[in-house]
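stage 2 :: seqdesign
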C-alpha cells in the first residue's frame, strides 16, 4: 500500500514529542504506535506486538543489545578495581589543560578506528574521570567521542563501515560498467567525496583546541560545571583551614586510598578487548574474553571476591537496561518507517527538482534528514544506493560524488540522530542523559552538515 505524505507524520510527530517531553524511549514508542495506527487502523495492536517480537528475535539486534549489556558489566568491574582511576590519574598528570584532555580524546578516537562501538565505549570509559578532574562537562566528551565514531570509521578503509558500503556499491550494474571489480576499489574512489565525515572531524578539532565557540546547550553545560566548581571551592577552603588549625594536634587519620589505582587493572582488559576485536572482527567475542581477563586479573590479587565480581557484572548490565530499551525502540521505528516506504517516497518526491549539478547536495540533505528522523543509516543507504545510482546515470551526474553524498548522509544520521546507537552509547558511556548529549552536539553537527552541503554543491557545479 502507498502511504504518500502520511509516511512523514510518524517521524515528525516523534521528534516533536521527544523535544517537548525530553524523553527518548517514550518518543520512539509513540512514533511506532503512530505509524502502525496509520497502517492498520484500529487493528494496530496485533501487528505492533508482532513488530516488537520480531525486533527482539532479530539476531543482529540481539547481538547489539547483548554487546551493550556486557559492556555495562565490564565498565562496572573496571571501576571497582580502580583501573579507570589509575589510568585517569596518569592522564591527569600528562594532560595539563582542558584542551589537551579533549585533544587526547580526539586522537584516541582516531586511533581506535576499527568499529564505532569499540571507539565510543573504550574512549568514554578511559576519559570520564579525567574530564571530571579538569572540569570538562561530560557533554563535551560525549560530543568528541561521538564525532570520532562513525566519521573516523567511514574515512579509514579498514572498518566495519567499509565492509558494508563496499558490499552495497558493487551490487549496482552501473558501478560494474565503470570498470570496478571490487567494492573496496569503489570505496577508495568515493573516499575523497565524503565531505561530512571530513567536516565533522574539522569542527570537533576546532572545538577541542578552543577555536570553535561553545554554543547552545554545550555553553550551558560549561556554565553549569563552572558554577558548581565555584560553589565547591569555598567549602574546600574551609576544610583546608580546619586541617591547618589541627596540624599541631596528634590526630591519626586513616590513609586515603580512594585516589589510588593501578593502570594494569585498566590497560590489560582494554588491550585484550581491542586486540581480540582486531583479530576476530567480533566485538562480542572480544568483550567476553575481556571479562575473563578481568576475572583472572582481579580475583587472584584479591581486588574483589568472585561473589562481588558477579554482583558487579549484573549491576552493570542492569545499569545499561535503559539504553537497551532505547536501542530496541529505535530498531522498531526503523522497521516501521521502512514498511511505510519513507525513504523511497522522499527520494522520488525530490527527483523532479534534481539535475546533475544539484543531485549530490540534494541527496546528502535527503539522506541526512531521513537517517536523522529514523536512525536507520545503513538500512536507508542500502535502499538509497539502488535509487540514486540509476538517477545519477540518467542525469549524467557524477556517480562517485553522489555515492559520497549517500555515505555522508548516513554518517550524519549516526552522528546526530537523537536515538541512533552511536548517540545513545556515547551518552551512556559518559553517564549523561541521552537528549542532553544529542541537543548539545546538534549545533556542531549542523555546522558540519552545512559545510558538507556547500562542498557537494561546489563539486556538483564544477562537475
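stage 2 :: out
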Amino acid at each position: 500500500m502507498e502511504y504518500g505524505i502520511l509516511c512523514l507524520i510518524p517521524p515528525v510527530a516523534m521528534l516533536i514529542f521527544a523535544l517537548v517531553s525530553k524523553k527518548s524511549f517514550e518518543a520512539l514508542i509513540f512514533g511506532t504506535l503512530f505509524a502502525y495506527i496509520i497502517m492498520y487502523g484500529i487493528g494496530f495492536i496485533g501487528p505492533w506486538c508482532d513488530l516488537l517480537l520480531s525486533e527482539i528475535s532479530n539476531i543482529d539486534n540481539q547481538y547489539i543489545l547483548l554487546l551493550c549489556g556486557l559492556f555495562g558489566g565490564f565498565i562496572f568491574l573496571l571501576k571497582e578495581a580502580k583501573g579507570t582511576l589509575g589510568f585517569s590519574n596518569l592522564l591527569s598528570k600528562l594532560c595539563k589543560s582542558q584542551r589537551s584532555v579533549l585533544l587526547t580524546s580526539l586522537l584516541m578516537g582516531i586511533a581506535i578506528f576499527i568499529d564505532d562501538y569499540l571507539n565510543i565505549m573504550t574512549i568514554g570509559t578511559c576519559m570520564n574521570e579525567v574530564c571530571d578532574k579538569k572540569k570538562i562537562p561530560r557533554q563535551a566528551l560525549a560530543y568528541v567521542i561521538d564525532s570520532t565514531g562513525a566519521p573516523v570509521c567511514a574515512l579509514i578503509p579498514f572498518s566495519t563501515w567499509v565492509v558494508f558500503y563496499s558490499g552495497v556499491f558493487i551490487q549496482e550494474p552501473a558501478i560494474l560498467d565503470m570498470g570496478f571489480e571490487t567494492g573496496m576499489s569503489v570505496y577508495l574512489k568515493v573516499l575523497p567525496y565524503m565531505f561530512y565525515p571530513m567536516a565533522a572531524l574539522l569542527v570537533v578539532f576546532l572545538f577541542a583546541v578552543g577555536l570553535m565557540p561553545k554554543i547552545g546547550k554545550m555553553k550551558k553545560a560549561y556554565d553549569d560545571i563552572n558554577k558548581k566548581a565555584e560553589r565547591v571551592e569555598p567549602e574546600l577552603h574551609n576544610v583546608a583551614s580546619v586541617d591547618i588549625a589541627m596540624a599541631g594536634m596528634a590526630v591519626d587519620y586513616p590513609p586515603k586510598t580512594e585516589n589510588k589505582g593501578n593502570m594494569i587493572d585498566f590497560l590489560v582488559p582494554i588491550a585484550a578487548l581491542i586486540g581480540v576485536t582486531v583479530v576476530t572482527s567480533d566485538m562480542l567475542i572480544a568483550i567476553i574474553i575481556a571479562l575473563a581477563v578481568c576475572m583472572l586479573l582481579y580475583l587472584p590479587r584479591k581486588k574483589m571476591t568472585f561473589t562481588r565480581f558477579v554482583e558487579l557484572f549484573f549491576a552493570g548490565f542492569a545499569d545499561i537496561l535503559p539504553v537497551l530499551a532505547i536501542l530496541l525502540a529505535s530498531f522498531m521505528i526503523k522497521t516501521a518507517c521502512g514498511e511505510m516506504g519513507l525513504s523511497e517516497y522522499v527520494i522520488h518526491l525530490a527527483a523532479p527538482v534534481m539535475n546533475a549539478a544539484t543531485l549530490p547536495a540534494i541527496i546528502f540533505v535527503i539522506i541526512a534528514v531521513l537517517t536523522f528522523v529514523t536512525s536507520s543509516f545503513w538500512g536507508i543507504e542500502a535502499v538509497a544506493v539502488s535509487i540514486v545510482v540509476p538517477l545519477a546515470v540518467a542525469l549524467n551526474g557524477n556517480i562517485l560524488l553522489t555515492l559520497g553524498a549517500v555515505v555522508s548522509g548516513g554518517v550524519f544520521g549516526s552522528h546526530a540522530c537523537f536515538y541512533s546507537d552511536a548517540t545513545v552509547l556515547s551518552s551512556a558511556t559518559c553517564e549523561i542523559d541521552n537528549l542532553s548529549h544529542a541537543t548539545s552536539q546538534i549545533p556542531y553537527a549542523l555546522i558540519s552538515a552545512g559545510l558538507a552541503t556547500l562542498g557537494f554543491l561546489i563539486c556538483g557545479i564544477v562537475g
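stage 3 :: structure notes
- The CA atoms of residues 155 and 191 lie 7 Å apart.
- Residues 233-258 have pLDDT under 50 and may be disordered.
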